[in-house]
Design brief:
Elements (H helix, E strand, L loop, with lengths): L8 E3 L8 H7 L4 E6 L7 H14 L4 E4 L1 E3 L2 E2 L21 H17 L5 E2 L23 H17 L5 E5 L20 H7 L2 H8 L4 E4 L3 E2 L3 E4 L4 H11 L5 E6 L11 H11 L3 E4 L3 H11 L7 H6 L9 H4 L3 H18 L1
Parallel strand pairs: 1-2, 1-12, 2-3, 3-6, 7-8, 8-11, 11-12
Antiparallel strand pairs: 4-5, 9-10
Helix pairs in contact: 3-4, 3-12, 4-6, 8-9
Length: 342
């Protein structure tokens, strides 16, 4: 067991059990979290065992997953199927309640296996041009996005899970996919403040715990992508919007992050700009490079921020599966799927 506090790097694993090389990575003082993918999952029992093994080595590490619903849900069998965000609006007067129920159900099932956080909710405003966002967005109107995402976040909080709003300041206005290229959004800051940023502003006032910036350039505001921009992260997000939580980079192996150079250079640029933790996914050698490049003493500001994202209370899975609230939530979300498919 290693007693280092969480460092600034979150990385992934290759399979359903720890490889010896990954044990050494977990022991790095720069290691701060693990992000899980579908390849890391066979069953709830296997996943719980993997998480216990991780925590035996580094008890304080954050364990995360992209499990927002719809297309982006890493674990399927043994978990409730969460609808894509765009579906709640179709529920009319019960849309907010449905979003809150789904947020709670998603979070409580993950918490019952020891996962700290899911990177949700998506706060991007849909404009009809972004296929990578699409139905991951709650709506096309900023106020509606804020209302439904706020309800989803409330459900997550009731389950003891922190919420991460993404992709600041908004990915919905471009067609390009930042996984494959560096998109450019030419709109002015005033336009972004009017349409894309309001959901972030609203949820920050409601207690949003973390934010993930987009790998997008907004040249009317800054020549750097948002995740590398101190103007976006420290100036607009922290000073103008008053955000005090954790800032995660998006995955530094994405094509949208390549402009900074080597993986180590990308990590340093993101951390210098204002990120508290950087993600390095699907590239073990890149993760090792970033762990080596960022090893150092704990940051007195970053450390307590990261600790605040840990699951807020334990959830017993056996009790959960007989809990009337869980059974009702499962029935509600299942009926939502059936209604929407009818």
């Amino acid at each position: 067991m290693t007693s280092y506090p969480p460092g600034p790097v979150m990385f992934d694993l290759t399979g359903t059990a720890l490889h010896p090389s990954e044990v050494a990575m977990l022991e790095s003082p720069a290691a701060g979290g693990i992000i899980l993918f579908t390849r890391n999952y066979q069953s709830p029992e296997q996943l719980a065992s993997l998480i216990r093994d991780i925590r035996q080595i580094r008890p304080g590490l954050l364990i995360a997953v992209d499990h927002e619903g719809g297309r982006v849900q890493r674990f399927r069998q043994g978990f409730s199927r969460i609808p894509p965000a765009a579906r709640y609006l179709e529920c009319g007067e019960t849309a907010g309640l449905m979003a809150q129920t789904a947020g709670w159900l998603m979070a409580i099932e993950l918490r019952s296996l020891g996962i700290d956080l899911s990177f949700a909710p998506v706060l991007d405003v849909d404009t009809g041009v972004s296929a990578i966002i699409g139905d991951r967005a709650f709506a096309r109107e900023p106020d509606t996005v804020a209302g439904l995402a706020g309800a989803f976040m409330d459900g997550m909080h009731r389950a003891g899970m922190a919420a991460t709003g993404k992709h600041f300041p908004g990915h919905g206005g471009v067609a390009a996919d930042s996984h494959l290229e560096l998109p450019v959004d030419t709109r002015s800051l005033d336009q972004l403040l009017e349409r894309d940023i309001p959901p972030f502003k609203r949820l920050i006032t409601l207690g949003l715990d973390a934010v993930m910036p987009a790998h997008l350039v907004y040249p009317a505001v800054d020549a750097e992508p948002a995740g590398y921009s101190s103007r976006w992260l420290q100036g607009i997000l922290r000073q103008t919007l008053g955000f005090r939580g954790v800032i995660f980079s998006d995955d530094l192996t994405m094509a949208g992050a390549e402009s900074a150079g080597s993986y180590g250079a990308r990590a340093h640029k993101a951390l210098t700009a204002g990120c508290d933790m950087v993600l390095v996914c699907n590239a073990p050698e890149a993760a090792r490079e970033v762990l080596e490049e960022t090893a150092g003493p704990p940051d007195p500001i970053r450390h307590p921020r990261l600790q605040s994202l840990a699951g807020r209370f334990p959830v017993d899975r056996e009790r959960l599966l007989t809990d009337p609230e869980w059974l009702k939530a499962v029935q509600t979300i299942t009926s939502l799927h059936e209604t929407l498919q009818a």
